[in-house]
Amino acid sequence: MTDFLYPFIESEERDAPALLADLARSAESKARQSAELRSVTLSTQADVIARAADAMATRFAAGGRLFTFGNGGSATDAAGAAALFMSPLEGHPLPARSLADEAVVTALGNDVGFGIVFSRQLIAYGGERDIAFGVSTSGSSENVLAAFGEARRRGLLTVGLAGFDGGQMAVSPDVDHCIVVAADSVHRVQEVQAAVTLALWEAVRRALGAPSAPVTGR
Amino acid sequence: MTEHFEGDEVLGPLAADLATASLALARRFAAGATLWCWAPGAPQHAQHVAVEFVHPVIMGKRALPAAAITGAGDDAVDALRSLVVPGDVITVLDADGDRRVNAVLRRAASWGVSTIWIGAGERPAAGAASHVLWRDGDPARAMYDGTVVLVYHLLWELTHVCFEHPGLLQEQPDDAAEVCITCADEAGVAEVVDVGAGTATVRTAGRMEHVDTSLVDTVACGDLVLVHAGTAISIVDESR
After folding, report:
1. What is this structure's pTM?
2. Which residues of chain A have a CB within 8 Å of the CB of B175?
3. ipTM confidence score
4. In this structure, are B144 and B213 located in the same domain?
5. Which range (A149-153, A212-216, B72-76, B167-171) has the least confidence?
6. Do residues B119 and B219 both lie within one domain?
7. Which of A11, A86, A150, B96 is deepest in the core (most CB within 10 A)?
8. Pick from B20, B21, B146: which is nearest to A191 by CB?
9. What's the pLDDT score for residue B187?
């Protein structure tokens, strides 16, 4: 199994090693940008993360549930957020689920339109003790904004996770707490949104009375 | 959280590992491969990798075939066995390396596919996958704090950089590891597909072969055996 270590010994492409060196430099540079963006974001957004976590803890303590949603990679990040609360690294589960159920989303998208695939679900599921958690790197995904509007009408707490300049989410009156990862690369935004989500979960746990020591691994 | 200081390397040796894996993956894509994405403990990551490749976030980048295996549970090994064709790539996103992960990674060579294992924490043994893309840190947190997401984002980005160098996309012989085990002077891993009297049909390097099993104990479908010159010489111990 050493073939991957020396894939170019027989290569006639003499500049493959140069490409590999470029790729490695590029990877390190982007990883550094991601690390720096994470550090800056967790600092600049610390207050809004703390306020959102306190409000979420209040809802959880009252029996509320967390509904998460987003599109594409943000759908998977929303699913990861639900998994983090529902199957936590430590402590008790908190009720959470992603709205990416394929039967429901395709039924709504096909029969009505993609703009309502999340808002229509909040009509069905959402109550005034619950929490709507929407993820959009642009901050302006139509169906995420529509879901926040519906959540507002139904009394849910609304927490948004956005990138770039926060987009529509940052100025929407329907979003109680908007956390912005201020960068213009979707990938770097998503990497840091994951770190923000973990910080949010940790802060919710603390607000609910869990020990403040950092979670350690298995 | 790992603090970052100016001047530190963030990735260390992982940067070179990513470069090598990305070029190998680009070459496989160029040759028609599908990337199968599997994250047994965190299926959202498998779906995230798939959507990155299928629907590139940067306009103008080509859509590449990547698909997530989700919801298969303990049947994921069977699902992957059925879906892969020789030349494909399986990426496993998992920091634990449980029984199912080991079963898939051990069988990959017999299916004729290469593997990219992404995770964090204690690094797997050398050779556990064709490419091991590993980060430092707590393995459980790494699945949630963006640590693992960064690795597959970089894999995607670097793979597309490779597509800007079409002259380098021709697969090299070593990439494919296409070796006829009956001719080569080494044993190859094979998965038993059908059992006869003193013989078995096995899948090895993605091809079916008939082998003599009289030197080993009774074999069953799904067993891994080492084959040399048309003969099964041992059954792989999968108890670990």
Report:
1. 0.91
2. 3, 7
3. 0.90
4. no
5. A212-216
6. no
7. A150
8. B146
9. 81
**Which residues 14-73 of B are in CB contact (within 8 Å) with A?**
14-16, 18-24, 42-45, 47-48, 51-52, 55, 57
What top-level class would CATH report for the domain A17-207? alpha beta
Q: Residue B43 sits in which domain range?
A: 14-168
| Residue of B88, B80, B86 whose CA lies nearest to B25 | B88
- Chain B residues in contact with A7 by the CB 8 A cut-off are 20, 23-24, 172, 174-175
Instruction: Provide the CATH number for the domain around residue B215.
Output: 2.30.30.140
The reply to whether B116 and B195 lie within a common domain is no
DSSP chain B: -----TT--SSTTHHHHHHHHHHHHHHHHHTT--EEEE-TT-HHHHHHHHHHHHS-SSTTPPP--EEEE-S-GGGHHHHHHHH--TT-EEEEE-SS--HHHHHHHHHHHHHT-EEEEEEESSPPPTTSSSEEEEE-S-HHHHTTSSHHHHHHHHHHHHHHHHTT-GGG-SPPHHHHT---TTTSSS-EEEEEEEE-SSEEEEEETTEEEEEE-TTSS---TT-EEEEETTEEEEE-----
Q: Clarify whether residues B40 and B134 are in a common domain.
A: yes
Q: Check if B153 contacts A (Cβ < 8 Å).
A: yes
The answer to whether the beta carbons of residues A117 and A125 sit under 8 Å apart is no
Closest partner residue to A7 among B9, B51, B175, by Cβ? B175
Query: Measured between alpha carbons, how far is A168 from A146 in angstroms, rounded to an integer?
Result: 11
pLDDT in tens, B33-73: 999 999 999 999 999 999 999 999 888 899 999 999 998 77
* C-alpha closest to that of A59 among A154, A134, A128, A148: A128
Looking at chain B, the whole-number percentage of residues with pLDDT higher than 90 is 80
Q: Label residue B217 by pLDDT band (50, 70, 90).
A: confident
